[in-house]
From TrEMBL:
ATP binds at P32, N33, G34, C35, G36, K37, S38, N39. It comes from Aurantiacibacter rhizosphaerae. It is found in: Cytoplasm. Belongs to the SMC family. Contains large globular domains required for ATP hydrolysis at each terminus and a third globular domain forming a flexible hinge near the middle of the molecule. These domains are separated by coiled-coil structures. The gene is smc. Required for chromosome condensation and partitioning. Homodimer. This is Chromosome partition protein Smc.
Amino acid sequence: MEFRKLRLSGFKSFVEPAELRIEPGLTGVVGPNGCGKSNVLEAIRWVMGENSPKSMRGGGMEDVIFAGTANRPPRDFAEVVLHAVDDKGEPLEVTRRIERGAGSAYRMNGDDVRAKDVSLLFADAATGAHSPALVSQGKIAQVIAAKPTERRMMLEEAAGIAGLHVRRRDAESK
Ligand code: ATP
Ligand code: MG
């Protein structure tokens, strides 16, 4: 699977609708402190089904919704749309939207789907050759400072190979 485009609206600091193209190859997100780099990574994780408020740096799931500033009122929903191309070359559009007091809902190519359908879709993609690998700011420093064996584990994790080892151990223990 290859990611092509990300659309954000009301998600964290992205109060106005924003569209980010994701070109083939390695993508780096750079910019001054506080400009929203980590929020972009979190948006990608969130649309893929991340549900831990802690890994989204919030106390609750609704904390991803733009909370307002001194001169802008808060939003009542957040939406992230991920455009991708699947392994068969078919376009894929996944949307996740959360409304205050109403929880979050997913759509896949326009149809309502369950959270489980989305996490299964990306669980499979993570083990593929073109797996989406997200490396956060903190991890970069860890990769540089790590011992070779640790570094290999991190890279395997990023490439989605770690999942294969887990499945192999699981198969071997049967
Ligand atoms: P750094 O270089 O320091 O890591 P960064 O580019 O990764 O910064 P982020 O952490 O992505 O920046 O963005 C931080 C900004 O997002 C802060 O200004 C914070 O107030 C804002 N922000 C986070 N959540 C929300 C929210 N729910 N509503 C409004 N703004 C938010
Ligand atoms: Mg950051």
